[in-house]
Write a structure and sequence with these properties.
This protein has 90 residues and is mostly helical. It has 5 helices and no strands. Helix 3 packs across helix 4 and helix 3 crosses helix 5. It starts with a helix and ends in a 10-residue tail after the last helix.
């Protein structure tokens, strides 16, 4: 375990920190899925923008965690990647 993991595990003992960490996990997961799918297809942000109809600057902001895409934007990105959005309660 590295220093960050040790620090994170210590911080997660604080209920308020854990609550905030858990709340941001979905946003992080969505961002990671978009980046992974784009890279899997060897697409640049500019190419994904052309395929999805979403400006490259907005894709960059989503991938950098500066904005959270709404469902419609997620669907457009997914369509540009040849995929569909699936949401589940688990």
């Amino acid at each position: 375990m590295d220093d960050f993991d040790s620090f994170l595990n210590e911080q997660l003992q604080d209920p308020e920190f854990k609550k905030e960490w858990d709340a941001s996990q979905l946003e992080f997961d969505i961002t990671e899925m978009i980046i992974a799918a784009r890279r899997e297809q060897n697409l640049s942000q500019k190419e994904l923008a052309a395929k999805s109809g979403i400006r490259q600057s907005n894709i960059s902001r989503i991938e950098n965690g500066q904005c959270i895409p709404n469902i419609t934007t997620l669907q457009r990105i997914a369509a540009g990647l040849g995929k569909k959005v699936q949401i589940q309660f688990i």
